[in-house]
Write a structure and sequence with these properties.
The protein is of the alpha/beta class and about 450 residues long. It is built from 18 helices and 14 strands. Helix 10 packs across helix 13 and helix 14 packs across helix 17. The relative contact order is 0.10.
């Protein structure tokens, strides 16, 4: 591919290896990724996409597509192929337009043929888990039932494969990645966003994880898990993560005034549901406050006694009505960053994460992290950064929170959190390495 060939030449130039350019350095990533000939065309594939859509893999896809489009502006076309749904619970069509442009990215949407079938999905799951029935047709039926069932998207990939230089499939769990990648394995790059959960053990996924052209892992923990399960170490791969960029104009006072929130708060930002550990977080927080009251007296305890749990995001569970638990709902990016800037600690209680954008955004503001240690990815972020603590039960949660509320500990761990995000997840670094891998450059295959 001419674009990628030129990218390799430019890498040599940057490293001072090319004849006549020894020691010369290129000043910007845009120059590194210059096209030598006709434009390159890249398509990201995700189950949902849009400014209103919240979710880990969806946010990753939008951020990567928009940054790649910006860095390669005029040199490559970046598109997204997705469904017309915004709600993953039903997969009902919400978007009317077939094609639109969002921040220089062309978005092609395809209608969902059938809504999500929970009965069929769970029935097939029961046959697999309890009766060990793993026929290929049954596993594929379960995947179609999970959705979003967009056969026209798959047909589009098959019919237009020659128009694109690379197809980048994000997240393994849903219909578009498995059925779409099968049509273009020779051009398919895969960001699985995988973690240890029941669906990934379906036999059909072995083909997906071993036949794609290359894999981008978000963390080393994800790579270790996937390679242990699928024995696919020889597939070209890199651990890249995602660029983390937060607003420099965030204003905590603006957030506090808008939502009438004062004093210290422990922040959770994301989808509020039991599967994300939010029920346990609420229970731990209530228990913590009740014990603090018993230990210090009704009117004592200082700032820890006044601590509020702030829940930010769409809620799919009942939230207790208490003065020290505040729910602000799904908010704009500006409000999110304003709220993160004012937080004392950011908490991620999920056992199942493959990266956690919201955690790293919070850490970028200097918020130390308190995370569920049963999630290897979250535990890894904390251990590598020194920017917080992890817990595996209530007692560790209580002690971790108490320590992080101590001014000296909060300041020290917060500084480490900021340094970690800056060093590991700068956009220039991520996009540069992403392009390098696509060009056939350095990978971690076999390591």
């Amino acid at each position: 591919m001419e674009f990628f060939g030129y990218y390799r030449k430019m890498n040599d130039w940057k490293a001072g290896k090319a004849d006549g350019h020894k020691g010369h350095k290129i000043s910007s990533l845009e120059h590194v990724c210059l096209t030598y000939g006709e434009k390159m065309k890249i398509a990201f594939i995700n189950q949902r996409y849009g400014l209103e859509v919240a979710g880990g893999s969806e946010s990753y896809t939008r951020a990567m597509a928009e940054h790649l489009a910006e860095y390669l502006k005029g040199k490559a076309e970046v598109e997204v192929l997705t469904s017309k749904a915004s709600d993953y619970i039903t997969w009902e069509d919400d978007y009317e337009e077939d094609v639109e442009t969002i921040h220089h990215v062309t978005v092609r949407r395809f209608s969902v043929k059938h809504k999500r079938s929970r009965v069929l999905q769970r029935g097939a799951g029961i046959l697999m888990r309890y009766f060990h029935i793993h026929f290929k047709w049954l596993e594929e039926l379960r995947l179609k039932a999970r959705g979003p069932y967009v056969p026209k998207l798959v047909s589009y990939i098959r019919e237009h494969r020659d128009e694109y230089d690379a197809f980048i499939f994000v997240t393994y769990l849903y219909y578009p990645a498995y059925f779409g990648a099968k049509e273009v394995y020779d051009k398919a790059w895969f960001i699985p966003t995988a973690h240890d959960e029941e669906p990934i053990y379906m036999n059909i996924y072995k083909e997906l994880f071993t036949k794609v052209k290359g894999i981008v892992y978000l963390t080393s923990e994800e790579k270790t898990f996937v390679e242990g399960l699928f024995k696919n170490r020889e597939i070209p791969n890199r651990v890249l993560g995602m660029g983390i960029e937060v607003s420099e104009n965030a204003d905590e006072n603006r957030f506090r005034q808008k939502y009438d929130i004062w004093g210290d708060y422990l922040l959770f930002a994301g989808r509020i549901e039991e599967n994300k550990g939010c029920r346990e977080l609420v229970d731990y927080f209530v228990r913590y406050k009740e014990q603090l009251c018993e230990e210090t007296g009704e009117n004592a305890g200082g700032k820890q006694r006044e601590l509020t749990l702030l829940l930010m995001g769409k809620s799919l569970m009942e939230i207790p009505e208490r003065n020290d638990i505040r729910y602000v709902g799904f908010v704009s990016d500006r409000d999110k960053y304003d709220g993160m800037k004012g937080a004392k600690v950011i908490c991620l209680p999920s056992k199942y994460e493959s990266f956690s954008i919201s955690l790293l955004e919070g850490m970028a503001f200097g918020n130390p992290a308190l995370v569920n240690g049963e999630c290897h990815v979250l535990k890894g972020h904390v251990e590598r950064s020194g920017g917080g603590f992890y817990y595996t039960g209530y007692e560790e949660f209580k002690e971790g929170l108490r320590k992080l509320l101590e001014p000296d500990v909060n300041e020290e761990t917060g500084k480490k959190a900021v340094a970690y995000v800056r060093e590991e997840y700068g956009w220039d670094r991520i996009i540069g390495r992403f392009c390098e891998m696509l060009s056939g450059g350095k990978t971690d295959a076999g390591n």
